Amino acid sequence: MSAAARREDEHPPTTIATVAAMTSPAPAPLASAVLDTLFRHARTQNGWLPRPVSEASLRELYDLWRWGPTAANGQPARVVFVMTPEGKARLRPCLSPGNVDKTMGAPVTAVIGYDVGFHEHLPRLFPHSPSARDGFVGEHNIPRAEASAFRNGTLQGAYLMIAARALGLDCGPMSGFDHAAVDREFFAGTSIRSNFLCNLGYGDPTKLFGRLPRLSFEECCRVV
Ligand SMILES: Cc1cc2nc3c(=O)[nH]c(=O)nc-3n(C[C@H](O)[C@H](O)[C@H](O)COP(=O)(O)O)c2cc1C
Predict the structure, then answer these.
(1) Nearest to residue 51, comparing CAs of 166, 162, 170?
(2) How far is Cα 215 from Cα 88, in angstroms, rounded to an integer?
(3) If you take atom 23 of ligand 1, which residue's CA is the nearest one?
(4) Domain range for residue 118?
(5) Which CATH number is 171's domain given?
(6) Domain count across the chain
(7) Do the domain assignments include residue 52?
(8) Tens of pLDDT along 162-210?
(9) How far is CA 180 from CA 136, 183, 188, 193, in A?
(10) Ligand 1, residues at Cβ distance < 6 Å
(11) Quick one: 110 exposed, middle or buried, by C-beta within 10 A (0-12, 13-18, 19+)?
């Protein structure tokens, strides 16, 4: 493992709080109905009920998904919540044809991006390791910064979706769009790049596609 990679893996010293957490009984699994809401019954939505989502709800959502873990606590995800007619009009020409109607009809479309300059915040976000930022600075570290930003920003996008479901919102993730066009429209002059879009709101059950199969444990997993 390189010195830079080791820095990303460093952890703060164990504190009294973490010792207490380690010695308390393991939490029980969540109720089966909650697991249904988060996973088994949750669906990708293609149409939306005419019920708005407030900015207060989006702030509540952020207060939940921001706690999901990221390498070196780097938190590279950056999100633009598009919810005004003007914002939707800017997004529309960037979308694949099959994603236009569902996106125009959604109360909110989250443009989920990742900041390849995320490491500039590491001195504040990972303060016990003052050198953490160094492993991402400079031309030669660009691939490493991009990989870390994409990996951890994608994880944060997944946290956003699970948090949205936990708060009673439905999701409709999409990668069918022109990334360069979205970057020009929403992230110009920044070090942020678009990753995926996610419509948010209250799904119209009449617009659902059929549930598709999932791979089995044997197909996906190995125990060694
Ligand atoms: C990152 C990502 C990108 C996706 N892109 C699109 C898309 O561009 N258009 C679309 O209609 N559905 C898109 N989907 C929806 C998937 O096809 C859908 O989530 C999958 O088939 C599972 O559906 P289910 O959640 O209803 O079981 C995308 C999903 C994800 C997670």
Answers:
(1) 170
(2) 36
(3) 44
(4) 46-204
(5) 3.40.109.10
(6) 1
(7) yes
(8) 999 999 999 999 999 999 999 999 999 999 999 999 999 999 999 999 9
(9) 24, 5, 10, 8
(10) 43-44, 98-99, 173-176, 196, 211-212
(11) buried
